[in-house]
Recover the amino acids of this structure.
């Protein structure tokens, strides 16, 4: 079975939309290089609390 993760989600609305198609929703919570996809801990928590039916994964680069 193939599973799908969509990464770089930056807000709750997009996470809800993506959750209709993906098995995992990825949020970037730490990055050594500047990226517009980086989210704060507060936004990550809101996504985790809101999205149902999929797993939310924290992407940590350089930790």
């Amino acid at each position: 079975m193939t599973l799908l993760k969509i990464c770089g989600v930056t807000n709750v609305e997009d996470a809800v939309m993506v959750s209709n198609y993906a098995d995992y929703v990825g949020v970037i919570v730490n990055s050594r290089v500047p990226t517009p996809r980086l989210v704060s801990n507060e936004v990550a928590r809101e996504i985790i609390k809101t999205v149902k039916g999929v797993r939310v994964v924290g992407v940590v680069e350089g930790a």
